[in-house]
Every structure is written in structure tokens, then in C-alpha cells.
Design brief:
With 131 residues, the chain is an alpha+beta fold. The chain has one domain: Cytidine Deaminase, domain 2 (3-Layer(aba) Sandwich), CATH 3.40.140.10. Strands 2-1-3-4-5 form a five-stranded mixed beta sheet. A hairpin with a 4-residue loop joins strand 1 and strand 2. 32% of the residues are buried.
Length: 131
């Protein structure tokens, strides 16, 4: 998978973000083990706790469309914001991505595209094997 294609899908998703309070638009695109791409954007709410991040929106869309385990295995997620670079997943999103085996995160930085091994972003993660 060309990471540029995934970044573009995330950028396109960010254009559909609903962010009237923060004006911080985010898009995410994830690639599953079966080669599917799922996208999400952040959706804010006046009751801030009910807002949803782009990364989790993409994971939930993936899960809703999954037909087998490979449909729920995240190989790579791209996160883009036209309002900040780099735009890395928040802690809650990192934990949700961990649940689905995310291997890498790709973001835009001033110097170009950068890939992060997921373990660098969430070391010593809590997962199903700890239950």
C-alpha cells in the first residue's frame, strides 16, 4: 500500500469533519489486513464528552463492515489535520487502535510523511491478553 494514498484518504475525510467548537479538523484512514481502507473524521458535540475522534470513527466503521478477522486487523492508520502537523492519535484512540492490532501510524510532518511503529506511541499497552 502506498502510504501517500492513505494520507490522501485521511485528508479527504478531514474535509468532512464537524468541528464547530475547536475548529480542529481531523481525518483518519486505516488499512486492514485484507486490503480494505476505512475512513473517519472527528465529530464534535456541544456536550464535549460525546464528541468522537477521527481514528475511532474509522475503527468503528471498519468494525461495522467486517466480515472476518482480517477485516478487523489494522495494519496502518494515517492521521491528518489541515490545522496541525503532525497530528498524532490521542490516548483514547491509541488504546482503541491497540485493540485492533494496529502496527503503524503515518502522519504528515513539516519534513514529509513519517511512519511510527505503534509500540513507540503506546509502549506497555494494555490489551486483551492482560485479561
Amino acid at each position: 500500500m502506498d502510504e501517500t494514498h492513505l494520507i490522501e484518504a485521511a485528508r479527504d475525510a478531514s474535509s468532512r469533519a464537524y468541528a464547530p467548537y475547536s475548529n480542529f479538523r481531523v481525518g483518519a484512514a486505516l488499512l486492514t489486513a485484507n486490503g480494505e481502507i476505512h475512513v473517519g473524521c472527528n465529530v464534535e458535540n456541544a456536550s464535549y464528552g460525546l464528541s468522537m475522534c477521527a481514528e475511532r470513527a474509522a475503527v468503528f466503521a471498519m468494525s461495522a463492515n467486517a466480515t472476518d478477522e482480517d477485516d478487523r486487523k489494522v495494519l496502518l492508520v494515517a492521521v491528518v489535520s489541515p490545522d496541525a502537523a503532525p497530528c498524532l492519535p490521542c490516548g483514547a484512540c491509541r488504546q482503541v487502535l491497540r485493540e485492533f492490532g494496529c502496527e503503524e501510524v503515518v502522519v504528515e510532518e513539516s519534513s514529509g510523511i513519517r511512519r511510527y511503529p505503534f509500540g513507540e506511541l503506546l509502549p506497555h499497552a494494555f490489551g486483551p491478553e492482560a485479561l
